Amino acid sequence: MSLWRSATSARVSGESVRIDAARCVRSRLDRSHCRACADACPEDAIALDSFPTLVAARCTSCRLCEAACPAGAIEGDARDLETLSAELGRTPHPVLGCQAPGVDAHVRTGCLGFLELEGLLALALELPDGLTLNLTHCRDCPNGPAVTGLERMVGEARRLTGAVGATNLRIATSTEALAFRENPLSRRQFFSIAAKRCAAAATAAVPLQQVGSAAPDGGTKRLPSRRRLLLKNLSALPGQRRASVADALFPTLAFESACNNCMACVGVCPTGAIAASQTDPLRPEFIAARCTGCGICAEFCNVGAIGLSSRAAPKPESKPATFPASAVS
What we know:
Order of helices and strands: HEHHEEHEHEEHEHEHHHHEHEEHE
Mean pLDDT: 80
């Protein structure tokens, strides 16, 4: 086994997912009707109560729940998308793959079912040398249906980014189409990567399916990693392309005449998409780029004064896998 493959073969994520109660919409608002994660799960592995809990015996780690969660409360890897993109960026023409045996990749994560349109757009803009998604083993994988929507979403990402990102995303479903080349590593690079992988594997040994018992911090405002990475790179797009991305991904919100400027929505929003104005008297103001469409503001408003129109990005579909014979280039 080569130095690169042995250094990157350590499992980085656990066999399950972690649910951060402090980020979960249902945990932040006990009357929330959000059930995005449960609806996305093909195995009924998420039980809904005051906040979601994982039924570990049913979970196959397909990570569709992670793709569906609007608040970024679910993680199937100890590394977020920004960290993964930084690792991918160290390799010319990088390949991203899962951790199944025999999958060639420069960077490995859990099942690629966690990728959705917003994340793919962010990666297309972040990686100038392009990115190939290795789906060569998905045909025979129990989680194969989790990634059947990737081809459709890659096409949509290309359409939205135009020439800037049109060639930056590829899907490879055969070894011949993948044309994988390992990166030669010096001994110092090898042992550095091996040390990092061992540390990550040790951290992942803690059961990831346990939900933290600490009370949610309603004052914490944090964007999901995929949104942070996307916003970082949006300036690379021409104005009309930026508008197209915003129109496809960013929800719209209106404060109706019943709004009494109580500012409660400012406090409950988990991402800071609703902020206090700089005017006197204070009033809530909407920041579309920070909104992920979780809907907690509309559910929380006691006077029903918030009208939210969510432009939810399409997610991978849980349908029987149908893979083309060659790569989508």
